Amino acid sequence: MAIKIEQVKSVLLKNARVVDPQVKLDQITDILIEKDIIRKIGPVREFKGKTVDCKNKIVIPGMMDMHVHLREPGEEHKETVITGCHAAAAGGFTELACMPNTKPPIDCRSDVEFIKERAENHLVNVHPIAAVTIGQAGEQLTEMGDMIEAGAAGFSDDGKPVLTAALMRRALEYATMLGKPVIDHCEDLSLSESGVMHEGKISAVLGMPSIPSIAEEIIVARDLLIAEYTEGLLHLAHISTAGAVRLIREAKSRGVRVTAETCPHYLVLTDEAVRGFNTLTKMNPPLRSENDQKMLIRGLKDGTIDTIATDHAPHAIEDKECEFQVAAFGIIGLETAFGLIWTHLVEKKLLTLEELILKMSVHPRQILQLPENKIESGAPANLTLVDPDIMWTVDNTAFESKSKNMPFQDWKLKGKTFGVINRGKMILTV
Ligand code: DOR
Ligand code: ZN
To answer: Average pLDDT, stretch 333-361?
Structure first.
């Protein structure tokens, strides 16, 4: 489906359930938008402009995905800034942060500017995350201040961990002084080695080289200690293990300034899915055990895990249509995230609508120290439109993303976003 971006002169969202826990709003009413501003929240009669019928639909603050791989520059055959933004909008996101592990990595001012320019006129706001070390090589820190001036929203060597404790310490000190977090990919490389799946009963049965939970937890523990020592702003990416949740919970209880994310795939799949050697179940960190999944959900519920991000990782067909051991790590997620979370968590009463809004809209902005996005009269109109009842079947041939790699093809889901509004633009996907 080709995406159509409309300019908003004035639009009326009619009879919507408008929900924003930030302003304690949960009401069936109308929203009048003029250009990029919310003019009125309340009944509007006599309106001649464009009207979107939102009966039995929900309007929430525009969702943000803080962990996306856009592949530009260097691998534009997998994704570009624009196709990634289209995919984000199709999945209900109005904002995203993109990781710097492009080719070459985003590690200087002009690289950050390049990404910002590419996304300049899109409905979706793009916040580049810049590399912690030059070339993500784990040796020398980048010019962080310079890149923040150019619009970087945080720092990460994602794809890899920040290699040494000394680098992590300096990175946290500088980034925190500049008001932005360091986002770490927690993996002790000496333990993950050439592993391709979670270490447990199933890897033993399959005889596959594996990645133990402690590969993640050792770096989580290291980072928490350094964050505590430096009072730095630490964000832990794609948390996948019960032990990591426990460590983060304990650190938070002592006031360490740490936030954490997990991804939809860890919440809906376990390492059981790897039995068929489907390379679309290969990602890093790997799908973990049922107990890990249970503890991630508990961590989401009790506030240990602050946000759900997709780790949208586009790969070409040839990178996945090969033996499991040599296939690339990662799956795309922008266009399935909402439906998966709605169907498998909200419908099953494991997460409330308000919690979903906090995890997928409010917290990512707080973590990256970005302006808040509230549904209030006079505020910028940055909104996601949700159809909570629609039944749909995942079909990656209809995706906006250039890549199709994900294990959810033909899954039946309930709940989908059907539009986004931001920056005076609107995309309706029905
Ligand atoms: O599965 C993954 N894919 N994990 C990462 O950390 C990197 C990502 C990628 O860039 O493909
Ligand atoms: Zn990633």
So the answer is: 98
**Intervals of CATH 2.30.40.10 along the chain:** 6-59+379-402+413-428
Over the stretch 387-411, which tens digit does the pLDDT of each residue have? Answer: 999 999 999 999 999 999 999 999 9
Could you say which ligand is closest to the alpha carbon of residue 405?
A: 1
CATH superfamily for domain 60-367 = Metal-dependent hydrolases (3.20.20.140)
Nearest CA residue ID for atom 1, ligand 1 = 330
CA of 182 to the centre of ligand 1 (A): 17
Place of tokens 């791989």: 69
* Domain at 6-59+379-402+413-428: CATH code: 2.30.40.10
pLDDT number for residue 66: 98
Check if 330 has its Cβ closer than 6 Å to any atom of ligand 1: yes
The residue whose C-alpha atom lies closest to atom 5 belonging to ligand 1 is 159
**Catalytically annotated residues:** 311
Give Dmax (Cα) for the chain: 68
CB atoms within 10 A of CB 298: 15
428: buried, middle or exposed (CB in 10 Å: 19+, 13-18, 0-12)? middle
Percentage of residues in the chain having pLDDT higher than 70: 100
Q: Is the CB of 101 under 6 A from ligand 1?
A: yes
